[in-house]
Amino acid sequence: VRVAVLGVGRVGSAIVADLARDGNFEVTAVDASAAALQRAMLQGATSKQRLDLGDPGQVGKLAARHDLVVGAVPGPIGYQTLEAVIQSGTNVVDISFSAENPLQLAELAESVGVTAVVDCGVAPGLSNMLLGFTETACDRVERFICYVGGLPVDRGGLFQYKAPFSPIDVIAEYNRPARYVENGEIKSGAALSQLEQIEVAGLGTLEAFLTDGLRTLLDTARVPDMREKTIRYPGHAAQMALLRGMGLFGQEPVDVGGINVVPRELAARLLIPLWEFGPGDEDVTVMRVEIAAVSGSVSSRYVFELLDRYDAQTGTLSMARTTGYTCTAVVRLVASGLYSRSGISPPEYVGRNAGCFESVVGDLKARGVDLRESVAALR
Amino acid sequence: VRVAVLGVGRVGSAIVADLARDGNFEVTAVDASAAALQRAMLQGATSKQRLDLGDPGQVGKLAARHDLVVGAVPGPIGYQTLEAVIQSGTNVVDISFSAENPLQLAELAESVGVTAVVDCGVAPGLSNMLLGFTETACDRVERFICYVGGLPVDRGGLFQYKAPFSPIDVIAEYNRPARYVENGEIKSGAALSQLEQIEVAGLGTLEAFLTDGLRTLLDTARVPDMREKTIRYPGHAAQMALLRGMGLFGQEPVDVGGINVVPRELAARLLIPLWEFGPGDEDVTVMRVEIAAVSGSVSSRYVFELLDRYDAQTGTLSMARTTGYTCTAVVRLVASGLYSRSGISPPEYVGRNAGCFESVVGDLKARGVDLRESVAALR
What we know:
By secondary structure, the first copy, chain A, is of the alpha/beta class. Chain A has 13 helices and 18 strands. The first copy, chain A, is 35% helix and 29% strand. Chain A starts with a strand and ends with a strand. Chains A and B meet through helix 9, strand 13 and helix 10 of A and helix 9, strand 13 and helix 10 of B.
């Protein structure tokens, strides 16, 4: 199976490495950066292709020469890239997390007969599958909450935080109103609000606050109460609320001594050296999904927990492991035809297929990403 | 007595009003702003003079036509203004708080035979007088600590803080290393460090941290332990340390998408609307000076406390009251010849004269600025 991986950054290169180990895939690494391509070859890519990923025309032509495409490009070009791949008629599994709603491409994908699984990381991604699986297994789901976060293991430093991607994307997430569902209605709250403390074995007391992470679930899930909360070390929300409150996350240019400055751009610029994972910096991924569901007369509370750590052997960040291996698990399902729904599939659709769900969880487990499940009957 | 008040901003105009009420002064208000001059006339100024205060030549000529000058100009032009006034041969009382050490002008002032009292506000100012007074009254002083701060009465808002002057000056204070004296040695610590909580009757628990406020005392006082600490509502130091730590107080330009931005300038720009006292916004000034001194075999601990509030009747901020009325008290001493030392006098020199000290405290009391003193014999 010929797979093109579009974008071989931190996550893309973990995807290349994992698919290359399978033996069933011929992996083409695609990127604009020669250095990134070089690294991808060392990770086991079969070939490399230097390409401006911002050019949908070129992306479409390249996609047409492959059996399957993995989209791992930066968010701002995620949607146009996905559209170009679908138009080329090639199946695709995507983790680009564009700001646009990928479900807008559903008709196009169906008309072309393409299988496109989007938002296919850990959260969104695995978290959606957990909900899809539970929705199918039970009569109805009453409540869904996903706590999720990536953290540096070393708590030193001013922010007790590092980001494996650009600070400007984190800032955007903290600035954007966060949609959640309450009593069957979609509501909007401030990101960083609804702050609570949660205990995580092995990490101690953490904090969690509202963020806009439900994405496709707002359209697809019939659950009267849903929210996503981001996990950080305690104090982070207050720090970010301060920066946001003073206007530092703003996108409107401000006149500073006669020159126009976009506060958010300066903020991101100052945070890059403080938030960057350096060589050997370890991270951890925490996810806790709580689902209250009813079957017949029994109410149950399902708790799925994931705690994954940096892989020191390969130098792979946990964020790349959990995102990348969820993606490759679905790549296998699509490549083998086990998942073949035509159109746009958010991960909850994959989760509704019990066989597919078990396959993803099994693939993750084989890679050391262990999802623990507990169920308590409530009545 | 013809007095020129250079700079009639918040503090300068309170000085104009106070001197005008005396009846002994003909007060010329001097400023570049026509609006500020208009307000000063309403405060009782005898005449107004529009002038570019940044031009020392013009300042010198104007000073020569007066018997006494009050310097209340922005810090950056404070030193050059003071120098020009001294060169004109006119006595001066100054509250401009320049970054430069005014004692460098001592020889010039002595040679011209001018009486120049500098740093003549509340702290530096009144605090220095308290130390000067105690040094003269006792055999030796072992310890001096000045806690001081101006706070908004309304604790609402992101920062629980407002500044009656430009945020960029506050930022500079938080960024500059803070000098203090320990075991007879001048040491340097980070501003915002040595954080402690203090209780102030009427205001509750406040916080205090090291700032670089000793100024002339570093040269003039023979005290083995001295420090100045700034008072704020709790949490302020942590907020400022965050902004400083992320580089937002830096003065080095940073490249943001091809344009050079000085982080401190953007920070100040964003803080202006958040820190500005609006019409009717009330402030409070807190000062607590602790002095440990020995006379014969008796060790005593003197505590001087001041808590002053916004004057709603005249709309005068407490910061302008405490700074301005200390200044006008010394203006009266110099105008009447009760204080006539030629050269540069920091306020501790004024305080060493018991009669002058009592006169200042009396003038302040008459204006409702009440300094309470308590003494405890330690052994």
